[in-house]
């Protein structure tokens, strides 16, 4: 029975090779998209799950209330918190602290820049980063110890047997060496904590005692809760811990679950989507594309199965049951689905590397993974049932007497259900292509928005200790280059954010009033490198030596302070008291997704991480060649890495988002058109005799083409009217994420559907013309 079943199925598929291949291609592409989406979603939701204490690990964050009343989280906190957290909340089993670090390690004449962390000595007991060499209890007991990753060990020593050896380093002009006491397995890519070496935190605290100040923002503090403890209880106990240490600090502590680190963020006390929006979006798009493939299969299968009514009628007359016929046609569908799944797995395996780069993370794909096997089995079952069940029921429900008498539905009649499937197939790509155009418009808006910077004429360099020591000499040498207009040291690049301080007071301030200022450390030439629009007063000027103790604020800060005439008023920031000499406006400290924020600029030599060089003429390569010689003269140990402002990635970078929606649009269009091509081919061939009769009676080729294309135009028009409000709503939601955004691009709602119309009609026009232009004599001899 089974052999006969396979023979019938394979014979049918072979006789209809063209349509079988079309179905195979559609399902393969649909399954490939679904598999890629599932793999990436699975990678995101499994982030950090390799930790054995995953469910009990929480980072300690603080809500900070900003000038507009919004409450946002702040993670780097004082290093002193661990000493009081467990006293305040006995439900905490343990605490550990992390401070990020990067330094240059030397190996003979070679230097390698590596990223690592300082951590408490219980770090490897709290988190699950398996040790390959060394004992976790003794690794971080001495300030001169270091634990390195397997990758780093092989890079420097060629193997992992390096315990007891020393590793030399250079850091901010200082040189030294650490003794290797442990080698741990390289940190997985799906970890929210990434590092290649660990140094005892006591070494950092010994050099930076300020890190224990109540208001310091330096350390990530992690807590491990006892079993069966809910975080809500601990949140109530630790909420006002910072305020008790320092009453002026506007911080409310709360626990941020490790399981939420990648997927969510917190704002105004609520959990909001972070990577979770990618999970939902990719799932919806992958599922929608798979549905398009399934609906293609359904429509084409029903059209083809009309020819098989006689076969079904004979089977029923000879005693076959309805369930047997349903299982036969479902079996044929599953054969195609299994072949498609195999091809999709091979294709997905080949392109996961490309998509890993697009999504900014690795996509794990192992055929031996039991969970993946179960997921693929579920996809196969879903696809097979969705694709094959309705055509099987449609065919099995036919009346054998009517069938054998020739009373069957003609192949070119369409039920409302099948027409709905075609409309759905084209509504999805119309929505996607409109969304892609909206996202692209916003991306272009962000890239070209005037933020006071010529993105291609501003070079950004890293400031180092050696460069800072010779800051004035470096500026003088750079300004001696004719093409360079201005040079400035600062800690703030427009739209990239800067340090935030709550240590601010002013004349007439209410003691209970809290304000956070975004603090820019700059020099006298900051307004020459960037376009600072002065609204009142003036910017810093070297002609006025007293300016070193003054401030320039923006109009938002002046409004929050409720100053009618801020010029000449005093302001105290982080203990520094000075006079306000100017007010500027429309300077974007934070990303364009956010509003203008209260900002203050001060002259300060410390904490200036960037060196900005503005040039007017010449090629980038020529200018950087000259700059590089000067930079390397003052800083021979750090590689010279010039970047234009445009090269620096935006926080709201939409490139990957546009690419993903664009790729999804192309695939959706391709699948919809493949199904439409198959359906048009079948319909045109089945109406050959009808068209021959029409031509004999005087119908012209154009008239017949209009007849054939009219139905498809109607379906596409309905799809457009369904897609239009959906795309508009989604577009409004997307643009609403940005405080500064482009107007809704109305042209997208015309261009998107027109593109789909053109592609779809071109797809079917070839088949329509082939049949419409055929010799009527041959058409009447057909069949």
- Helix amount, in percent? 40-55%
* Sheet with the most strands, sense and barrel status: 8 strands, mixed
- Counting DSSP E segments of at least 2 residues, the number of strands comes to 25
Shape: globular
Radius of gyration over C-alpha positions, nearest whole angstrom:
34 Å
Structural class: alpha+beta
From the N-terminal CA to the C-terminal CA, the straight-line distance is 33 Å
Q: What amount of the residues lies in strands? A: 15-25%
* Mean model confidence by pLDDT: 83
Runs in which pLDDT lies below 50 for 5 or more consecutive residues are 410-414
Number of helices: 24
Q: Give the number of domains.
A: 4
Description:
With 783 residues, the chain is of the alpha+beta class. The chain folds into 4 domains: 1-47 and 273-409, no CATH class; 54-261, no CATH class; 423-449 and 647-783, no CATH class; 458-646, no CATH class. Helices cover 47% and strands 19% of the residues. The chain has 24 helices and 25 strands. Strands 16, 17, 18, 19, 20, 21, 22 and 23 form an 8-stranded mixed β-sheet that branches. Helix 14 packs across helix 23. It is globular, with a radius of gyration of 34 Å. The two termini are 33 Å apart. Residues 410-414 have low confidence and may be disordered.
């Amino acid at each position: 029975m089974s052999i006969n079943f396979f023979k019938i199925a394979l014979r049918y598929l072979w006789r209809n090779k063209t349509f079988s291949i079309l179905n195979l291609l559609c399902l393969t592409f649909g399954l490939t998209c679904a598999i890629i989406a599932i793999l990436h979603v699975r990678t995101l939701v499994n982030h950090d799950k390799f930790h054995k204490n995953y469910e009990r690990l929480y980072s300690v964050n603080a809500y900070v209330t900003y000038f507009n009343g919004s409450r946002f989280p702040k993670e780097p906190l004082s290093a002193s918190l661990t000493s009081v957290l467990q006293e305040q909340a006995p439900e905490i089993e343990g605490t550990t602290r992390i401070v990020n670090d990067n330094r240059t390690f030397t190996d003979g004449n070679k230097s390698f820049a590596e990223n690592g962390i300082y951590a408490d000595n219980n770090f490897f007991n709290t988190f699950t980063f398996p040790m390959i060499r060394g004992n976790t209890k003794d690794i971080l007991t001495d300030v001169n110890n270091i634990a390195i990753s397997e990758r780093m060990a092989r890079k420097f020593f060629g193997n992992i047997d390096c315990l007891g050896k020393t590793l030399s380093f250079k850091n901010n002009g200082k040189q030294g060496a650490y003794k290797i006491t442990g080698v741990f397995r390289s940190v997985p890519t799906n970890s929210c904590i990434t590092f290649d070496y660990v140094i005892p935190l006591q070494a950092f605290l010994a050099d930076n005692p300020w890190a224990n100040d109540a208001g310091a923002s330096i350390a990530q503090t992690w807590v491990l809760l006892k079993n069966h403890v809910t975080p809500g209880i601990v949140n109530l106990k630790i909420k006002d811990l910072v305020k008790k240490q320092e009453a002026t600090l506007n911080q409310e502590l709360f626990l941020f679950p490790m399981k939420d680190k990648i997927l969510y963020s917190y704002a105004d006390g609520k959990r909001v989507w972070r990577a979770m929006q990618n999970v939902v979006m990719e799932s919806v798009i992958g599922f929608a594309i798979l549905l398009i493939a399934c609906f293609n299969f359904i429509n084409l299968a029903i059209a083809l199965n009309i020819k098989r009514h006689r076969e079904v009628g004979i089977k029923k007359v000879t005693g076959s049951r309805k369930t047997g016929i349903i299982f036969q046609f479902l079996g044929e569908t599953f054969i195609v689905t299994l072949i498609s799944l195999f091809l999709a797995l091979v294709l997905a395996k080949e392109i996961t590397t490309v998509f890993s780069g697009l999504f900014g993370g690795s996509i794990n794909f192992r055929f031996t993974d039991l969970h993946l096997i179960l997921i693929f089995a579920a996809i196969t079952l879903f696809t097979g049932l969705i694709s094959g069940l309705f055509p099987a029921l449609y065919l099995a429900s036919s009346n054998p007497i009517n069938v054998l008498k020739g009373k069957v539905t003609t192949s070119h009649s369409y039920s409302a259900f099948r027409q709905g499937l075609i409309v759905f197939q084209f509504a999805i790509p119309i929505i996607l292509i409109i969304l892609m155009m909206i996202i692209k418009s916003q991306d272009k808006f962000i890239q070209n928005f005037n933020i006071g910077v010529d993105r291609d004429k501003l070079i950004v360099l890293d400031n180092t200790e050696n460069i800072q020591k010779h800051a004035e000499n470096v500026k003088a040498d750079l300004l001696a280059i004719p093409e360079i207009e201005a040079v400035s040291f600062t800690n703030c690049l427009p739209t990239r954010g800067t340090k935030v301080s709550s240590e601010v007071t002013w004349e007439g301030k209410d003691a209970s009033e809290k304000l956070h200022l975004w603090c820019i450390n700059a020099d006298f030439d900051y307004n020459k490198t960037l376009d600072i629009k002065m609204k009142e007063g003036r910017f810093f000027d070297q002609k006025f030596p007293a300016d070193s103790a003054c401030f320039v604020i923006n109009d938002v800060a002046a409004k929050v302070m409720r100053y009618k005439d801020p010029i000449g008023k005093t302001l105290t920031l982080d203990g520094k008291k000075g006079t306000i000499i100017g007010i500027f406006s429309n300077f974007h400290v934070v990303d364009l997704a956010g509003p203008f924020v209260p900002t203050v600029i001060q002259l300060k030599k410390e904490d200036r991480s960037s060196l900005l060089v503005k040039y007017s003429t010449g090629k980038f390569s020529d200018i950087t060649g000259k700059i590089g010689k000067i930079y390397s003269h003052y800083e021979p140990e750090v590689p010279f890495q010039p970047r234009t402002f445009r090269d620096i990635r935006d926080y709201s970078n939409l490139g990957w988002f546009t690419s993903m929606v664009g790729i999804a649009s192309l695939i959706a269009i391709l699948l919809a058109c493949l199904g439409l091509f198959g359906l048009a081919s079948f319909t045109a061939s089945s109406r050959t005799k009808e068209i021959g009769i029409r031509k004999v009676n005087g119908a012209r080729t154009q008239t017949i083409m209009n007849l054939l294309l009219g139905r498809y135009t109607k379906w596409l028009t309905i799809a457009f009217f369904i897609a239009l409000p959906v795309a508009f709503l989604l577009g409004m939601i997307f643009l609403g994420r940005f405080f500064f955004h482009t107007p809704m691009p109305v042209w997208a709602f015309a261009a998107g559907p027109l593109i789909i119309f053109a592609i779809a009609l071109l797809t079917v026009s070839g088949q329509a013309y082939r049949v419409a232009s055929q010799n009527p004599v041959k058409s009447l001899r057909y069949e």
